[in-house]
Amino acid sequence: MRFNSLDYLFFFLAVVGPFFAIPPRLRKTWLLVASLVFYMYWSPVFILLILYSTTIDYFVARRLAVVDDARARRGLLAFSYVTNFGALFVFKYFDFFMDSWAGVMQAAGFPVDAPALRLILPAGISFYTFEAISYTTDVYYRKYPAERDYARLLLFIVYFPKLIAGPIERAWHLIPQFERTVVFEYARVREGLARILWGLFKKVVVADRLAVYVDTIYSHPDQHVGSTLLLATLFFTFQIYCDFSAYSDIASGTAQVMGIDLLRNFRRPYFATSIADFWSRWHISLSTWFRDYVYIPLGGNRSGFWKTNQNIFTVFLVSGIWHGANWTFVIWGIWHGVFLLAQNILDRYAPLFVRPGRLSHVLQVACTFVIVTLSWVLFRAASVSDALHVYRAIFTNFDAARFFPGNGAQLAYGAFGIAVLLAVETCTELGFYSRFFLPRLKPARWLAYASVVLLLLLIGVVDGGQFIYFQF
Amino acid sequence: MRKLLLSLLAMTALLFVLDRAIGAGLERLFRASANPTDGDVLGHAWTMRAPVIVCGASRASHHYVSDSLGADLGAPVFNLGRDGSWGAAYEYGTAGILLNHYTPSLWIMDVDPMLVRTPEILDRLSCFLPWAHSEPVARELVGLRSHWEPVRLLSRIYPFNSMVLRLVAAHRGQDAAPRAGFLPLLGAMSPADVEREAVGVPGARADLDTLKLRFLARAIGALHARGVTVVAVRSPRFVRAEAAIARERLDGQELEQVFARHGVRFLDLSSSAQPQWADPSLYRDASHLNETGALRFTAELADSLRAHALLPAVRP
Predict the structure, then answer these.
(1) Which of A181, A201, A216 is the last residue of a domain?
(2) Is the Cβ pair A463, B123 closer than 8 Å?
(3) Does A6 contact chain B (CB < 8 Å)?
(4) A416 touches chain B (CB under 8 A)
(5) Interface of A with B in 16-35 (CB under 8 A)
(6) A267 and A168 together in one domain
(7) Is A267 at the interface with chain B, CB within 8 A?
(8) Phi, psi of B313, deg, nearest 5
């Protein structure tokens, strides 16, 4: 069930209405049933995979709570990892590794017929696998007690707002919130609904509108010159942000209406002043997951400068692989790792003494934006050779005279969407939203809500595509 | 809870008023525009009550010179061709809406294999949205897109979704003015395009689509029931490669059989059947004639219609 569909609107109303009407003790069960229905609406059979891994994690965690022997505990944790990562590997990476292996063998002069499973990727598998792993790991390190209530653990995994594309939740953050007695609070519900509306705007008006141009160009990048490809890449920069952050906004808004705060996932990433800053603003729940479960266990920053950088690079490599079973994503991860490394090395060995000021701030934001935008080429291109073509065209065959404008109205709607987005984000970044808009200008606020609804009807892409991160 | 409900109620009322007001404004712009893509082209057709209607996709829109054909046949012609690859559902919808307002005498369908092959793209049926409130056929077709269409149609803006800029441009006279639906294409094929066609290999042949065939039968049935003469015409396409010519012949035979089953005469004026259409200077691209080509084609079509005694009857 897509968030940007009327199916979801009616599902949301059907869940939220009874949620406040039924006694608080029944709400967990209600949310669990709703979440299972939500997931099974897409494909009922894959719920079995979630039940299977959750059941194993439940028993592993219960054993970890009572077993003290270090070796046995490691074995239990390994069992959980193998179960969760095993499923992820089979569904998402098996064919990729087999294809890559066949490619290597062929290049070496030993052509082989690599087996392929060609399985459908269960929705949200990368997200709920990471949540399950974080749960058993936290229990292993005794940071969180083993869950006694199976239904509560299952609800943590399948809680519908964040099930398909995050934010990647942690047990310590989400599970205790299920136990709170939620009372109806006007301000919270209104904020939640406003967040959903803003998410819909970003998805339906901005992301899906830009997607029309981006998809046209990136489906045949070899037929376009650098100027066209640059605009398509720039559009994709905003498309991917609006698409993914829209999902997070709708997820967080939905949960907020029901009294639950999900982890924050985005904080205006294109205002970042460095790659490190970018990753503290982009897909925050994933960045912190990698920090807690990969970077710190590898040693973090406790083993010297070079080891720290090696750990950072490893994290970005894994992050690239997590995003997709394609070499483009691996290189995308490496790209970010390399720039972060370069930044760290520069800071240490050749620090630039730039006087802090508005101009230097703007320049830093602009440089970071360019690096991030160019990295999205790898994220969007269907293959490494396509990505290389795009880079070549942008830098050596710009040819503005042969720029392909496509449908002029589409471009205008897309540009308008970006302008609105940037205006709102700039106001938020500068603090205008929380200082003026939220507390004081009540009529303006309601007018803004009404305008967003009208824009959805006027220029929104009805029946637009899936969220990009659903493929992960 | 009460405060929220009251706020939402007030918001709904405000949205209702704004939706009605903006929707009415967009509808006005739409009714005033005769642009085949974003205008009330059907409304203009039934106002004109043209005895001859041309219907089809972009090839219809750019190949049939309405005023020239009208002069040759001695009766006004309106061209309802629409840019894009349209299947039989478009013929059915257009015929159904028009027959609700008047009965033309002759219905010329510009046909190619896409009319009955490849699956119908239901999303494209959104072109009938502006008529969905008033025309049952439009409502039926729009309903195929999603089971939520009746809910979406509660909004008066929704039928004009994504059309606002084009409607405003048309209102300000910034749009190409069609001549009774005909939109001429200027320019000629580039030598590179001609070369490409010389070596082009046609792609795999798509299957016949049962939904398209059903819509075609319904469209022809509705027209025949009202005494409208239907003619299927295949207009020229620039084909030069042997394989492409062979494919075009094969498609022509199949289309002839399809229309014969419905008692409709099929006039094949394609380049594989009429070698004089192999001249690249008559084309804007491989699929579309330029204005010169369109004028020549229209004259040839008029001759062909006369030869087959398919002239429009004059109705009182």
Answers:
(1) A181
(2) yes
(3) yes
(4) no
(5) 20
(6) no
(7) no
(8) -80, 145
Nearest to A450 among B14, B155, B157 (CB): B14
Name, in order, each residue with C-beta under 8 angstroms of A56's C-beta and a sequence gap of 6 or more.
A79, A80, A83
Sign of CA dihedral A367, A371, A372, A373: positive
Residues A46 and A111 in one domain: yes
Q: Which residues pair with B179 in a beta bridge?
A: B182
* Rounded CA separation A444/A424 (Å): 14
Digit-coded pLDDT (tens) for B232-288: 999 998 888 888 888 888 888 888 998 999 999 999 888 777 778 888 888 998 889
Which residues on B lie below 8 Å from A412 (Cβ)? Answer: 165
Q: How many degrees, rounded to 5, is the angle at CA A37 between CA A241 and CA A178? A: 75
Pair A351, A314 in one domain: yes
* A150 and A229 belong to one structural domain: no
Q: What is the identity of the amino acid at A321? A: I
Q: Which residue of A has its CA nearest to B164?
A: A458
Q: What is the pairing mode between strands B288-289 and B283-285?
A: antiparallel
Chain B residues within 8 angstroms (CB to CB) of chain A: 1, 3-4, 7, 10-11, 14-15, 18-19, 22, 123, 126, 145-146, 148, 151-152, 155, 157-158, 160-162, 164-166
Residues A450, B11: C-beta atoms closer than 8 Å: yes
Both ends of chain A: CA-CA distance in Å? 16
Choose among A409, A454, A461: nearest Cβ to B18: A454
**A389 is annotated as an active-site residue:** no
**If you search the block for the tokens 């969407």, which residue do you land on?**
A417
Taking the domain B51-127+180-307, which CATH number applies?
Answer: 3.40.50.1110
The number of residues making up chain B comes to 316
- The ipTM assigned to this model is 0.80
Which of residues 153 through 192 in chain A touch B, CB cutoff 8 A?
A: 184, 186, 189-190
Domain ranges of chain B: 51-127+180-307
**What parts of chain A have a pLDDT lower than 50?**
none
Distances from the Cα of A106 to the Cα of A98, A382, B256, B296, angstroms: 12, 21, 50, 57
Same domain, A206 and A338: yes
**Cβ-contact B116, B208 below 8 angstroms:** yes
Confirm whether A362 is domain-assigned.
yes
| Residue B161 C-alpha, separation from nearest chain A C-alpha, in angstroms | 5
- Are A123 and A224 found together in one domain? no
**Per-residue pLDDT tens over the stretch A297-324:** 999 888 888 999 999 999 999 999 988 8
On whether the CB atoms of residues B224 and B261 are closer than 8 A, the answer is no
Q: Residue A77: give the domain boundaries.
A: 25-181
SS3 content of chain A, % helix, strand, coil (to 5): 75, 0, 25
Domain count across chain A? 2
- Single out the catalytic residue among A323, A336, A361, A389: A323
CA–CA distance, A104 with A125 (Å, rounded to integer): 28
Question: What pLDDT band is residue B316 in, cutting at 50, 70 and 90?
Answer: very low
Residues near A109 by Cβ (< 8 Å), separated by ≥ 6? Answer: none
With CB atoms and an 8 Å threshold, state whether B4 touches A453. Answer: no
CA–CA distance, A256 with A4 (Å, rounded to integer) = 18
Strands B52-55 and B106-110: parallel
Helix H segments across A108-182? 125-140, 150-158, 160-163, 171-178
